[in-house]
Amino acid sequence: MGRTRRNELFWLLLIAACIALFVYQREQHGRVRHDRVAAVAQDPNADIVTGSIAEKPARKTQPVGRYYVPLGSYGSIDQATRRYLDVAQRYPALERDNKLKINTVKLKGDGTFHRVRMGNFVSEREARAACGRAGFSAAQCPVVATR
């Protein structure tokens, strides 16, 4: 078998393996999705819309913090979401530890604002450390204490 023929055979097998893997993953995804839809269909409260379809993992109880860092206030949820995702990409532990949030606030006469915050730190020092790990300078991270 010539070298060109072996190259062609190699690429043909590689492409076939990729297609087989793609089909397998699609079948597995469809099976999981079908099971989840069936479980929801049996639930008498299936018509109730919630914020998430995923079950939340059990969390350890942590002391409620008093310090947070405002990262921006936006008139559009799209802009707030972009900021949230930017920070989550820089420092994924904030999102995993539920320390990164978007709060929606309605102000009389000014409309609705979406605030992006890092928060519920137990100390100012912890908040500043999180800023450093997220790649923010001290000027970009004003720590605010709640009342």
TrEMBL record:
Q: Name one Pfam family in it.
A: SPOR
- Please name the GO terms that the record assigns under molecular function: peptidoglycan binding
Highest rank taxon of the organism: Bacteria
Every SPOR domain range:
61-147
Name of the protein in its database record: SPOR domain-containing protein
Organism, scientific name: Parvibaculum sedimenti
